[in-house]
Amino acid sequence: MKHDNYLSSPTDELSTVPDTSSPAYASRHPLTRAFDKFASLVTRWAGSPAAFCIAVLTVVGWVVTGPMFHYSDGWQLVINTGTTVVTFLMVFLIQQSQNKDSVALHLKLNELLSSHRAASNQLIGIEVASEEELRRLAAAYLRLSTRQTEDAPAATSKESSPAELQTGNM
Length: 170
Description:
The chain is built from six helices and no strands.
């Protein structure tokens, strides 16, 4: 059975994914679990209309106080420093959430590929391929799509996928 092979494969431990971005990573240590939770909450909140309104109000408040501080260097330094610190910290929080989402998406796609009989299992784990390999594979799929639209009635499910052609398996 196809799933028996999948269950016994070495990717059960997600060895193809860096530890820091694997879904199991956050469960290993209380600090990483807390960071993962915090990053998820902050990135969800930062993308909300309320967060945008707070940011706009902060800038408006800063602009309004300009005349009171005679548009001094210190007044400008406040907004420059504040935005720099917030941006610096948000990069790490957003990247953590993006890593987690990316791994989850790849796992879902891998499951779809492995569960479909006609799909090529060779695309599972393709995210570790080099840029050149991905470009070759994309070109092969483009050729396949144009060929299938030209002779759509003649297409059969026994044709090899571009992934199989790239690796020489059929």
